[in-house]
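sorry for the late reply, my laptop died twice this morning and i had to redo everyting from scratch. anyway the thing you sent over, i finally got around to it. pasting the sequence first so we're on the same page, its 321 residues, then the predicted structure underneath. double check i copied it right bc i was rushing
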Amino acid sequence: MPRFPSRLAVAGAAVALTVGLITPGAAHAGTKPATRTGPLKWAALGDSYTAGVIEATGDLTAPQDGCARTTGSYPELIRRDLGALVDLHNASCSGAASPDVSTNKQSPLGRPLPPFGSDPDAPYPPVPPQIDVVDPASDVITVSTGGNDLGFGQILKDCIELGATHLGLGTPCKDKYDAQIPGRLDQLRTDYTAMLTALRTKAPSARVVTVGYPHLIPEDAARCQYGSLLQFGTFTPGDLGWARDSILKPLNLAIQQTSSAQQDTYVDLYSGSAGHSVCDPDHWLDGVLTSIIPLKYALVHPNAKGQKFAAAQVESTLLGN
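ok and here's the structure:
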């Protein structure tokens, strides 16, 4: 696992921040970057993979508005590591899709997430579109969405239920959803482009950094233990391979290509997390559950190791490395 930057490395990186190496919004426009005189104004946007959500990534942060941002999520890890070098506004929210970043109010669900649990403090009032925390003078915006655009949570639930009824055999989830995925990916590209355009319009000098999704499913899906709630439950091996190749990989590719078309920076979490899927011994994501006793839900989210890995990759990008 890549080493998380040390305080000495961060102190050296302050020089990079000061001379404006991470203000390529100006470079995007073809002009010379301006010299920085204060902390980096950073808006962190995204879904549950940014917010943290699960107990394995720490306590909930304030305000407890149902978005389930946690103390061990990668924006909060970077905030603590860089200290006064950054001025972070973290508006990430569990369940967010791309339109919830740019346009829509969202009704957050809290934690644990339905359908496997429910937050005793729910329902929560709607939260504003995440773009509201973006300042026209923002230096950098990080954003990670896409999974909810494709309906991954509902697909996960259905794959588990169908795999149980088919006793782990065949590809019942693929049979239900495969024909729908290309259209969902097309819509994702449209909504993701609109989101990036809206962010660029509100903060024209900001650097926009998009963050992909990690390696959830191993290349050999047969390594996953059928029926294990610490992994993918009753998801069939065939459906796991299909979900990896027909949903997760195309999702990351769509995000990368859309970001490139907008001349924005893409952070690849997939390649570097290979060998650390839900089903690997040193897993950086937890499965349906983090633990059975005590009962802790995960619903296939990065754990503390996964968030530290994401923090290292995103921080390196923020520092211009």
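The radius of gyration is 19 Å.
thats about all i looked at so far, will dig more tmrw
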